[in-house]
Amino acid sequence: MSFSQPHSATPAATGISAGFVDRDGVAQNLSGFTDADQAALKAGMEHPQRDEALLGGLEIYLDAASKARFLNTLKLEKCGEWLGRAAPDRLQIRLNEIARQSQHPAVAAFRAGLARSGGLERAYPKAKV
Questions:
Q1: Label partner for 45 (CA 20 to 30 A): which of 20, 39, 90, 125?
Q2: What are the phi and psi torsion angles at 126 (to 5°)?
Q3: Which residues does 4 contact at the CB level (< 8 Å), separation at least 6?
């Protein structure tokens, strides 16, 4: 399974020095997942032009998690739940699409956390019939 796409320029090459500048930076923030990483991700989600970097970084992170020797399902679930709660409405469908791309246990753990967050239901409530 491979989610990766061609990588964009590195922060040093572009002259940008922020934690959330490209897919690789997002993947590092997701794998570290400290309070500082979460703050950088949340700040990046405020700008729609950074959506592709966020989603690409998520794919890189899930790809790396699926290839890792040790599967940390609790961390993947926590990441999915946090992203589901923190991401704006415009990203909820795309996050769920990425979570359904594979049946690998790493992606399934992320999908479980994302579903638990209720982000998609909050962004697009069911119609009252």
A1: 125
A2: -65, 140
A3: 59, 60, 63
